[in-house]
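Quick illustration, no need to memorize.
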Amino acid sequence: MTRGVLAVDLGGTKAAAAVVDRDGMAGARRRAPAPRTLADTVEWIAAGVSGAAAVGVIVPGIYVPSTGRAWCPNLWGRDEVPLRDALADRLTVPVTIDSDRAGYVLGEAWLGAARGCRDALFVAIGTGIGVGILAEGRVLRGAHGVAGAAGWFALTGQWREDYAAMGCWEAESAGPALARAPRLPDAAAVVRAARDGRPDALAAVDRAARVTARGIANLVSAFDPDVVVLGGGLGEGAADLLLPVIEAEARRWAQPIAMARCRIVRSQLGDGAGLLGAARLAWEAVDRA
């Protein structure tokens, strides 16, 4: 009897993997700095596959199912890489690949804050901003694997040059933007200072939350979800500061019927959402076989 499937979460700086059974119970996690070449990534995944029925992999960027290629500049540079073919050449079990956005929303819908929901959004806020979209029980990926790149939402009335590199929402309220105004080392330092009552840190958090509320309002109006799950390093880690402002502001901006029937909640799975989502992808491949 197989032990389970191998779930792999390739982050921009760290990689995690675990064998996960059908109930979502995971064995010991294997963690490492994220491999920086495609060959090293394949070997790192292959080292944990023994006994697994299938492999699910999520990546921090764009995955195009029609070509099997992935664009993940934080891992392998600015060029697309043939990830599916590279893994298929090395492994003898089915491999399913998707974006981390898809993994997060699948994980939360399976065993987290969106459990049982067929229409749910996962808003990941960290160094960047991305959104996993579950609509009528299916992940929306778009024609080119780019669906959910909501960091590019246009949420202000005036163009800034840095929007061209990362998008307006991300430039205004992701982690680096939060750290910029109080001139603190990083977003975590801003959150700590805000909790200590430092006025400039509180103002920075409030502004980031208000911009994020507009982004979430647009998502709610467009997709009419049952729940919006706030996650990512900043979204989950500072939810106590962000959520009260986000909830109030989103209700001002969103379509009122959709917003009245939607919950905005903190992730229940934290950094485990991606692994469980990758496992879900792998178990679906087993069931299709």
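The mean pLDDT is 95.
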